[in-house]
Design brief:
This protein is α/β, with parallel strands linked by helices. About 45% of the residues lie in helices and about 15% in strands. The structure holds phosphoric acid mono(formamide)ester and norvaline (NVA).
Length: about 300
């Protein structure tokens, strides 16, 4: 039994196992195969909106032989103040695994500790590990090993998606450059926990030079809506547009975890020119989620 709580805490061999298993899951989809979740009931306990993560996990659980139960946290006693550790001890006696999307990273960790069942982080304010494993899978499908390549993240360098990219770079041996305004640079305490150097800059042009992958995410993450006006103004120079793409390698991939806000973090033309990659990223969430579930129950 294993938890996936963050990329920071996920060892490199486990990331590699999940990536290899996702490729096998993708190849064999629809054919008879092992059902590692047979007889199991998994809950998705979500406090924030979701399309891709929810659907890919619900479908993935069923394809692996299990049953999925979606629980909107606001409808539970959690929403009226029941502690996470009590909710965890109740659910741990009834179900076989939990997939949690919430605000505080410590809530997912506390749930894992008290429930005694495999617990997967489906996005917190700090990390989005399932997304970035899937993004690396997509990159490698199209461009080969990510090790030795240059990945550039543009935009909110302090958001959950950027943080999971930082931990992926620490573990998988690619160069990561974060181009973000001073207010949205990665947290210094987080950077002090790294053993490898990543580049953090306010200079978009310098960051994207010769990049193999250009990546962006929304400027207003869930829970940050009250800061929307300031964020849109401050982050405007960090848009992923045709001028930025022209500075990267000619065959650079453009990726976005979705949902995308055209005219904000990415332009309509750049999005549509790269839609095939971006929607492959979305599809690959399913194959990678299945690999994570199979890994978690080992
Ligand atoms: N990328 C992603 O996690 O999408 P959802 O918010 O729709 O799950
Ligand atoms: N950083 C975004 C990711 C959405 C999938 C958010 O937290 O809203």
């Amino acid at each position: 039994m294993r938890h996936l709580l963050s990329l920071e805490s996920l060892p490199k061999p486990d990331i590699e196992t999940i990536l290899a298993s996702a490729a096998a899951m993708k190849r064999s989809r629809g054919q008879p195969g092992p059902l590692p979740l047979a007889g199991q009931i998994w809950a998705l306990l979500f406090s924030k909106s979701s399309t891709r993560t929810r659907v890919s996990f619900e479908v993935g659980i069923r394809e692996l032989g299990g049953n999925a139960m979606f629980l909107n946290a606001a409808d539970m006693q959690l929403g009226r103040g029941e502690p996470v550790k009590d909710t965890a001890r109740v659910l741990g006696r009834m179900i076989h695994g939990a997939i949690i999307r919430t605000y505080a990273q410590r809530d997912v960790e506390e749930f894992a500790h008290f429930s005694g069942i495999p617990t997967i982080n489906a996005l917190t304010d700090e990390e989005h590990p399932c997304q970035i494993i899937s993004d690396i899978f997509t990159f490698q499908e199209r461009r080969g090993p990510v090790a030795g390549k240059t990945v550039v993240f543009l935009g909110d360098g302090a958001c959950n998606v950027a943080t999971s990219w930082i931990w992926a770079a620490e573990k998988l041996g690619f160069e990561l450059r974060i181009a973000a305004p001073a207010q949205f640079q990665p947290d210094k305490k987080l950077l002090s926990r790294l053993t490898k150097r990543i580049t953090c800059t306010e200079d978009v042009n310098a960051a994207v030079e010769d990049a193999d992958l250009l990546y962006t995410d929304v400027w207003v993450s869930m829970g940050k809506e009250s800061e929307a006006n300031d964020r849109l103004a401050i982050l405007a120079p960090y848009q992923l547009n045709a001028a930025v793409v022209s500075r990267a390698k000619r065959n650079a991939l453009v990726m976005h975890c979705l949902p995308a806000y055209r005219g904000k973090e990415i332009t309509e033309d750049v999005f549509e020119a790269n839609a095939d990659t971006i929607f492959a990223q979305a599809e690959n969430r399913l194959h990678v989620q299945k690999a994570i579930l199979a890994w978690a129950v080992q």
